[in-house]
Amino acid sequence: MTKHLKLFIGIFLIISFQVHAQITIKGNIVDDQNESVIGATIIVKGTTIGTVTDIRGDYSISVPENSETLIVSFIGYKSKEILISNRAIIDIKLEIDIAELESIVVTGYGSQRKQDITGAVAIVNTNEISKSQYTNVTDRLQGRVPGVSVKTNGEPGSMGDVTIRGVSFFGDNNPLYVIDGIPTEDSPNINPADIETIQVLKDASSSAIYGSRAANGVVVITTKKGRIGKPTISFNSNIGLQQIPNKMNVVNTSEFARIHNAAYDNAGYPRRTWSNDLSRGIDTDWQAEIFNEAAFLQDYNLSISGGNDKSKVYFNLNNTKQEGTIEGTIFERLGARINSEFDLTKRIKIGQNLSVSTTNQSGQQILNAQGVLGGSGNGVINTAIMMFPTIPVYDPTRLSGYGHGTIEDAEIYLYNPVGIREMYSSKEDHTRILGNIFVNVNLTSDLEYRFNFGTDSDFGFSKSHQRTGQITTELVHLSGLSEYNSKSTMLLFENRLTYKKKFGNHDFSVMASQTEQEFKIHQSGISIVGGFASANPFFQISATTAAPTDITTSGDELTSTISSLLGRFTYNYDGKYLFTANVRSDGSSKFPKNNRWGTFPSISLGWNISKESFFQSSIVNDLKLRVGYGVVGNASIDDYAYQSLIFSRSIGGNNYNLGYDDRSIIGATRAGIVNNDLKWETLKETNIGMDLSLMDGSIEIIGDIYFSELEDLLVDAPVPGSAGEGQSSTIINAATMDRSGWEFSFRYRKLDGNLKFDITANVFQNKNEVTYLPLGDLYGLHSITSVGQPIGQIYALDYLGVYTDESELGDNTVVGQTPELGDAKYRDISDDGDISEGQDRMILGDPNPKLQYGLNFSAYWKDFEFTIFFQGMNGADAFNAIKYNMNTSAQTSYTGDYDPFIDGIGTDPRPTADFGSPNNIASGLFVEDASYLRLKNIRIDYQIPWRRINNLGVFIGGQNLLTFTKYSGMDPEFDSNILAPGVDWGGFPNIRIFNSGFNITF
Amino acid sequence: MKILNFKIKMICLIIIFSSCVNLEQINPNQPTEDSFWKTREDFYSGLIGAYDYLQSGEMYAGQIQQTFNLLSDEGFTGELGETLNLATFTSDLDNEFHESLWYNFYILIARSYEVIERGNNSTLNGIDGLIAEAKFLVAFSYYHLINVYGDGVAYVDRIQGANDRPRKAESGEIWVLIETLLDDAIPLLPTSYPSSEFGRVTRGAAQSLLAKAYLQQRNYISAEQILKSIVESGLYGLNEDYESNFTEELTTGNKEVIFQVNFLENGPQEESDNAWYFRINTPGPSNIGIWADQLASEFAIRSYLVEADKDGNLDPRMNVSLFTEYTDQTLYGQTWAWWITNTTEIVTGASFYKFNENDAVYNEINNGSGYVQWKNGGRDMILIRYSDILLLLAEALNENGNTSEAHSYVNIVRNRSNMNNLEITAGRELNQEEFRQQIKHERLVELCGEYLRFFDLKRWGEYGPQVAADFTIPAVSTTIKRDSIFENFRVNKDELFPIPLDELDINPNLLPQNPGW
């Protein structure tokens, strides 16, 4: 019925167009330098009738007889309305719009003109970030947006951590990503080549439209749409070679043996034979064994874009394959996207966006393999750094043929890293479907209705296994297999009404929307220990001979829902006085009934001073002041977190055996204590900003300062033993924090003449300070979080050098120890004459950068384009835990810069194989300045002037070519956890890439 | 206009259609507290979950016996650190043994109140007995807590949430709670269970606990009354063989058991007495050392030498209770003489032998590997034994002035182990004060190593430095200190454990801390 009726309406409308008389208008469009503008859009005002200019800048359009006005627009130029006035030929000259004040910016549930924005919304330059070689969009944002920090790494397929305005929560600090109007729960692993625009909603006044999920900021991504005109086909190819920029500086065999022997001598233990006698001639460079010096990176995109005045289609096929610089790690993505829009009738538009992609990641097991010390995701790398050089890679006399230590020869319990790579195997596959369909209906000329239905689904499978064998001292590891299946689906429904009206100088809009999301996860896994003989090549669940007790299974289903009502009101008077108010009310199934709904309001004001009549300046084109305030939420809690569960298990669980024949009966008890009063974490933020445009828009300056209060932060709090759960804890909304900071960006453009420039720079500072913790300090590894400080200050003994004079030896010594010359000296904070970790640790560093910055310089000359991009940060401290571990233990190798006190020479504490030695305590000796400046990207593009096809470009480039830092670890960007953000346990270092490619467009 | 109307209708339809997500999402993976407790089976499972906690390592799989034995004049330790501190009254505030009892008995209380409170709010039939069993477990927990931490423990009489901060109980209040719970429970409990349910709380168990509660308050009148009713019920009796209470799997055939903890022979660690090495000396990993968490005191050993049996032989109960130079049994296949030659740890003389897992480990130790294969023993553990009840009845009768009648109950216990009637040994009937002293001896030799001595010392008002007084053994004519460790006893401090410091931090309602801490 519906279908028929709509078809009928469609036919009716088409017929009704046909009966109007048509006239044809032709013309040519040029820019202010009289060069043809190719691809400019010409639309008859008030209709969807339109066309685009061809390669000579010419156009031809048939318009209804009664048409009055044409609108001509092209990106980078000011839109122009032209009265037709019965002309048949209309030539038009467009003016460059450097500041792009008229450009439309998607800000979530609608869009605004750039000049009307009143919050702290950063518009990412997607052309600049397309020069990056990172395979995901989040890493490409690094250094591009003031206020946005990204920690990147070199693991194929991994996405860096993104934080906006610093780490503000003890749980989740990831921003919300909204892709084509679909809020997604995790990082957007979509093909970066599909991205048209990215906006970052940084402050609470702009992000409040996303309410309960906005406190970490919102990244709004829009993918490419078809363009009106003849179909264009473009193909991009990009091939790169990757390598580790620098290896960790470690000792060779002779230097190792000198220190290692001294360590055993100092402890009074017999020397280990392979260090005492170097006649075997082994000097293994373990890092060279695992790093691939020329790992391939390939990235191909084929896209087709086209459309006419009624329909537009964009299609893309992408293949990315990245070999890791650790042999055995691979990431591959194969994806397709189709985005289309159709004008069904004059008033009804329908459209869809759909991306289907599969990703495969191999070798994570190599990176996570057991048998290494601490950290996460860095197994084989840390092992290769720390392994003794006296051990050969392969040793046919050993059980599995791999070199490893023994207690007498070389006492080390790390796994042979080559053995890990060859014995451990893993893969993880995902298929993701992300898309939506929408219907836009212009109910009246001012009132628009939009219905949006979207989904984000992921189907995952991972598998890892290892062969049995021996690759370390004493231990024979078992074979094993684990498999894991997951399916997650999200459904989104959205209804939206937008009303826009202008009376004279009063311009206002109202948007109201109702939206819902449902998230479902199903997962199941199996893990088998043993049961696969070395000779058995069948690593399949069905092939195991393991006993049932060595097989563990898991699985569950999770559902969560969000229901929301939201609205926005904007008003501006004559473009001078701007007002925006947002409010969103979210109900979430994650919270108990009483706290289920939260309301998040915001208001912001803008004043375009430059539009005032009293403001007369030939230099300043645009000056706008902005001020905003908003309240937004965050919820780093699991599904069902408020629900108290019943634990019920048989043998080995909470069962009890009754009767003299010991009949096992299943018991049931409360499964831990939960807080049934959980609620949102909230951020209240005031943002003051200024947008300034000078010299015809060639200089643009944006500055923001902000002050925020974070309340009801979720932290673990102990529960009294009288509640009957032992010494347990539960999360409560209790901690508070303040944050403040400033952001500044600058852009200079010179777009005329033969030599053009585009220079952008940004710099920002963020400061978070804990103001209340319900139960005192929180501790992380070598870190403390206390009131009055940012999260995770580095906390250890203060190192004062080594004892070099007999007369000092009596000073503050570590409890129970008698120091000798060459031993470490520490500061006695408690001033009680003794040194102990309990009494004498102090804050030795702040892992939060003082300043973060990025600088992009682009120059255009004839058909050449040259781009160089620097990124860096200043004033962050790090505790080099890799170095600490190496230089305070006789069961790992040593760093190359370690200069221990041996025979009266050396500035670092003397080595000892005695674990309890005071020289082995964590101290300021390992705290370093992790500031860095990186040459992130450099690229030269050349457009070959070959006219038979529309466009042929070639380029060469590089990524992470140079890093300036004093930090001695592998990479000043390292993985860490929230309570110990400054502790460097290694990770997959950023990689250097040399690449070249071409793009061709027909 | 018609079209517009139609469109508006369509939109309304879509809006209504899409408003379908449910904000009330219940975890589908496990029952929730709200979805559970609907059937009698749910309550039965809940009760089983409470019983389950009795068999945990921190409770009767080892730590409780160790704690109470070390606190008394029966036991000592060969270990260092917090174990030694506990045994020698040199503990600091954070001794784990002090903290463990608090946390673990409140877990048992919490699991029991789940059954009681949900049951009280339920209309199900046939769960009254289950609730009564849970009430016993609460009373049982409080009985231990009050003896250790004193009157001022956290007053918990319902299910606790994360934000509950219970008040400090007032003086005597916990005793009232214990009595009320047991008075409620007794009429609803069965006197026995079918053999397949053996191990659950009976009426006799609840009566016994109530009697113990009265006795600790020195309410001998009420205690006598209820103890008598247990004895006169005819449900219980003494086994002919004293040893069978400690070396065999307990069955319904054993009339001496009133309440016990069931362990599973060679079962998973969580269901066997996995911490069995706490109980007695046990060989260490390589046959060269032994665990010496609990050693028997010199006083305990010598007490068995005070009186020979009818035939002039060693009190037969010693061979079951202790492993000493005086006894002739073997531990893991080796005699006392072998152990004393080959190990260094048996220094003070003896370890406890009751509840040993001799046979379970013995076969493993000799498997030729040179290493002991650790094995999870499954010996059931009696918590309330009929001979304890007989001796308590005798004690109550004596305190109530019925000394003559009291003799007969002591004699029942003595006769079972081939000991003469008290009157024959002494040559006459004892007077009240003599009997009072004699009962202390009788309880030691009968119940040695069964962790009851601490409660006895408290009841008798002896828990203090006087335990260190001289003790003369007539048979060997030597005088020793009864337990010299009690010289360390810090008066006005060691009478009670401190409330765990973390608990006071979280719940200041429990201030003030116990005296001296």
Keywords, separated by commas or semicolons:
heterodimer, A: 1002 residues, mainly beta, Immunoglobulin-like, Ferric Hydroxamate Uptake Protein, Chain A, domain 1, 22-stranded antiparallel beta barrel, 5-stranded mixed sheet, 12 helices, 53 strands, disordered N terminus, B: 517 residues, mainly alpha, Serine Threonine Protein Phosphatase 5, Tetratricopeptide repeat, two-stranded antiparallel sheet, two-stranded antiparallel ribbon
Describe the overall structure.
The complex is a heterodimer of chains A (1002) and B (517). In chain A, 8% of the residues lie in helices and 47% in strands. Chain A has 1002 residues and is mainly β. Among the domains of chain A are: 75 residues, Immunoglobulin-like, CATH 2.60.40; 122 residues, TonB-dependent receptor, plug domain (Ferric Hydroxamate Uptake Protein, Chain A, domain 1, Beta Complex), CATH 2.170.130. In chain A, the strands form 12 sheets. Chain A has a 22-stranded antiparallel β-barrel. Helices cover 44% and strands 7% of the residues of chain B. Chain B is built from 20 helices and 12 strands. In chain B, the strands form 6 sheets. In chain B, strands 1-5 form a two-stranded antiparallel ribbon. Chain B starts with a helix and ends in an 11-residue tail after the last helix. At the A-B interface, helix 1, strand 23, strand 25, strand 26 and strand 30 of A face helix 1, helix 2, helix 5 and helix 20 of B.
